[in-house]
Amino acid sequence: MTKNLSLFAAHKFCVAPMLDWSDRHCRYFHRILTRHAVLYTEMVTTGALLNGDIERHLGFTRQEQPVALQLGGSSAKELATCSKMAQDYAYNEVNLNVGCPSDRVQNGRFGACLMADPELVAECVAAMQNAVTIPVTVKSRIGIDDQDSYQQLAHFINTIATSGCHTFIIHARKAWLSGLSPKQNREVPPLRYDVVQQIKQDFPDLEIIINGGITTLEQAAGFLTSVDGVMIGREAYHNPYLLAEVDAMIYQQPARLQSRHEVVSAMLPYIQQQLAAGVRLHSITRHMLGLFHGIKGARAWRRHLSESGPRAGVDENVVLEALELVQV
């Protein structure tokens, strides 16, 4: 169990892996807001790493740490190889996706459908653990389709834990593998926080992180009395400034920045650096659209970045122009 202890405290608050959203620019932006939260990449498949551009999928700036790579796959050998790549790139953790319900991942036999085969997941996790010294974690649902009893979930957790995994991120909804879209699977199945909390009670030596439908830091802090950590997804993306209070409220550490304007100023050197490397401004600013959520002028901020950011040849002045439209 000692292998995973280094991130136990950090896991008190995590920002979820979000497909097409939590790329390196998004993570850098989120790290400006919080020093301590664990950030996750969007899911990367083993096939993409073994057959594609490794640097494009794995490259990140050290300022993003602590950051975890989420992998999708079902071949123990391939997952072990890709875990070693993650460690070589200095990721702090590698996470196995056993929760995504999309058709694409089902066709590749990974994601949530793996919950039906806990022995295979245990085999994959064991191979990953043997390949690296960084923590290997698992993100799952509470069940799939009609395989949603507490006993089945407890069997799944226990089986994987015997392979050496001690950290489980559990989305408190089950997944329907047919009939619901990925978006519907985040909204339609009822949230069962009590199930995740019961897992923590029954497996007190495991680190259990709760995920699903959590939208405020007050709600997150409340869960920390019954589980070890909380993961927030889309709320952190659409209303990112809530991350500015994570260090103080969750970790009892000084907040990194005091104002949204300071966040913009802190982002400017990174934006300039990335523009010089050939990155388009919109690739960065699309993640900043929600920074002024709830503030007068937020709509004008979003509109200016959305309309001007994608234009060829624009620079950081677009951000400064947008900032002038916000009344604080």
Q: Which secondary structure elements does this structure contain, and how are they paired or packed?
A:
Elements lengths: L12 E3 L8 H10 L4 E3 L3 E2 H6 L2 H5 L8 E6 L3 H13 L4 E6 L4 H5 L10 H14 L4 E5 L9 H12 L5 E5 L10 H4 L7 H10 L4 E5 L5 H7 L5 E4 L1 H5 L7 H4 L10 H17 L4 H5 L12 H11 L8 H8 L4
Parallel strand pairs: 1-2, 1-9, 2-4, 3-4, 4-5, 5-6, 6-7, 7-8, 8-9
Helix pairs in contact: 4-6, 6-7, 15-16
Explain the overall architecture.
The chain has 328 residues and is α/β, with parallel strands linked by helices. It has two domains: 2-249, Aldolase class I (TIM Barrel), CATH 3.20.20; 260-324, Four Helix Bundle (Hemerythrin (Met), subunit A) (Up-down Bundle), CATH 1.20.120.1460. 41% of the residues lie in helices and 12% in strands. The chain has 16 helices and nine strands. The chain has helices spanning 24-33, 46-51, 54-58, 76-88, 103-107, 118-131, 150-161, 182-185, 193-202, 217-223, 234-238, 246-249, 260-276, 281-285, 298-308, 317-324; strands at 13-15, 38-40, 44-45, 67-72, 93-98, 136-140, 167-171, 207-211, 229-232. An eight-stranded parallel beta barrel has the order 1-2-4-5-6-7-8-9, surrounded by five helices. The longest helix is centred in the last third of the chain and has 17 residues, at 260-276. The radius of gyration is 20 Å and the shape is globular. The N and C termini lie far apart (48 Å). Residues 1-5 have low confidence and may be disordered.
